[in-house]
Amino acid sequence: MTEAAGIFSSGMVLQRDKECSIWGKETQADKVQVILEGNTYEGDVTDGCFLVKIPAHEAATGCKITISGSSTIVLQDVCFGDVFYLSGQSNMELPVYRTRDVSAEEIDASDYPYIRQYRVTPQFQLCRENPPELPVQNWTRACGEELLQMSALGFYCAKRLYENKKIPIGLVLAAQGGSTIESWMPAELLKEFGDFEKIYAPFQGDGVLAKYLSGQEAHNAAWRTALESDDDKNYPQAVPEGATEFTVPGMLLEKDGKGYEGIVWFFKEFTLEQEPKEDAFLYLGDLIDADQTFINGTLVGRTEYRYPPRKYPFDGKILKKGRNLICVRLIIEGGSGGFVAEHPYYVRSGNEKIELSGTWKMVYGTKSQTHLDPGLRGQVIPTALFETSVRPLKDLACKGIWWYQGESNCDDPRRYDEKFSSMIAYWRNWFGEELPVVCVEMPDYQDPISGEQPEGWAPIQAQQRKAPEDVPNCAVTLGHDLWTPRELHPQRKSELGARLAETVETLIY
Fold it and tell me: Model pTM greater than 0.85?
């Protein structure tokens, strides 16, 4: 059986004007052939794996590639263009749909079938004997619903590159929200910066890390399940007796090292002056941490973690002319939580819009009897993302690297610049060429609870700005000013994408 690596599928983009490799597994044949435009290229099978090199090809669309071993794979609609590797964390990963508040008109007018993205979803595994494989994922196009899931920064930059160059653009999106720079570095480099082995060593071995992560997921789910009670049935229907006033936006803050972990219920009555319309929408700003939100007893939306804006379209049939009730079941996980300032809070029915900021009611629900220890996520474990999202792409031909990371290193910004420089040098050696690199500066930021910028934020930004001094063939795109108060993920990605495109054109083209 012949199996191509997950990145090779119909609709893919290969790097133009460079020798490209196609690789995968072969269980029966001794050789594998790749046929492109009537030309046949061949590669040997070694230890059940094949790699076939095809010569440099000019920019093109609509190509057909046939991979033939003990079985045959036919790839249609293959393009040759410029491929970029997108790494970092959530501000690189943030999808287009999360920028609709500021870029709706641009999004709705966008139709770019030759801008395409492959998503590297890490298969967390720290085992050189049984290394992780690239996930089987379709290349998505910057059109319609597919566009909405693409990296916003990646798309807004690629859009401008495509408009200027008129060649296909491929985005290999490997960024992972919350990832640390240490997770993107190989174990060999980490030795220079401290004893990181004590963190990742327990997760080495076949299936060990995956078992740990699934165990933590089950633990966290059980913690939330323990908070369930009869309140979940009764409170969405009516404001309970004994509810006290609470001002939205506002926070329930941890005091003297003691905070509240568990459920808090919030209630807001509002009056609809007109007959309700089917087109209804609730914007509930930004909440810390997870919520289930009801209107007149009907669940209209839920979000499982703190960062996404709460944008809940719903069927307006559940509304009534006159009095209506919003009920928010909020889970506070870290001692402090609530409604973040500087965000919109309103409900809309047709053309009628009702402001929700101001006086609400609240009542404490089930308090957790245990402190939630969420454990480690895969993307913060040193070397984990290198092993899962860099190593498997060793033979990928691409045009350059875009790096947008730093938020998760602000607790300890020391030597961030040295880590970045060492990482890029290693990556270049790994990929076999001196790929140009663009580093994107983090936006300014205020913590939504304290209202202050984290202490390590500015030092990371300063080190990002000096990246071109430390790394040859590197440039930086400035983004500190494109921030939104108390928002870790500002939506002005189109403006940042324009700046990134200008930097890419200057450095690479």
Answer: yes
